[in-house]
Design goal:
Blueprint (H helix, E strand, L loop, with lengths): L4 E4 L1 E4 L7 E2 L6 E2 L3 E5 L2 E3 L19 E5 L2 E3 L1 H8 L1 E4 L6 E3 L4 E4 L2 E4 L17 E5 L2 E4 H5 L8 E5 L3
Antiparallel strand pairs: 1-7, 2-5, 3-4, 5-6, 7-8, 9-10, 11-12, 13-14, 13-15
Bound molecules: zinc ion (ZN) (4 copies).
One zinc ion binds next to loops.
């Protein structure tokens, strides 16, 4: 099992008497005056990069994140492994990389975004109604004889 890890990057200078160290990124020797130290290994300043966006992680004081053998910048880590929020229909967490449907302040799994009475799914541009946080299709909404307040017709947009 791989645990999430947050690591800080530090810049270290090579003492002239020391043997050059191997870079954990390219396996070459580091002959530069400065190198980066992170994850208990040494790196060329150019070799410590985010696996997603290729940005250099060697800025002083920067933080990197590792997960499943990926080295990521904070932005990509949150994008991939953060969470969007709880699905308003099934109330389970939605990971940030998943596509979601949004309706007002709520987010839904794509699979959960359906009329909560007849389970009809919506397509982009379809009209749906939100009533007491319940999603309703137009038919069920109009067949509802209860007081029609707190209802906002919305359009599906992704
Ligand atoms: Zn290198
Ligand atoms: Zn990145
Ligand atoms: Zn859900
Ligand atoms: Zn319905």
């Amino acid at each position: 099992m791989v645990l999430d890890k947050e690591e800080s990057v530090s810049l270290v200078s090579l003492q002239s008497r020391e043997k050059p160290r191997g870079c954990a990124g390219c396996n070459g020797k580091i002959r530069d005056r400065f190198m980066l130290q992170a994850l208990d290994r040494y790196w060329h300043e150019d070799c410590l990069k985010c696996a997603c966006c290729d940005c250099r992680l060697g800025r002083v004081g920067s933080t990197l994140y590792t997960r499943a053998n990926l080295i990521l910048c904070r932005r990509d880590y949150l994008r991939l492994f953060g969470v969007t929020g709880n699905c308003a229909a099934c109330s389970k967490l939605i990971p940030a990389f998943e596509m979601v449907m949004r309706a007002r302040d709520n987010v839904y799994h794509l699979d959960c975004f359906a009329c909560q009475l007849c389970r009809q799914r919506f397509c982009v541009g379809d009209k749906f109604f939100l009533k007491n946080n319940m999603i309703l299709c137009q038919l069920d909404y109009e067949g509802d004889t209860l007081v029609k307040d707190d209802v906002a017709p919305c359009r599906v947009d992704v």
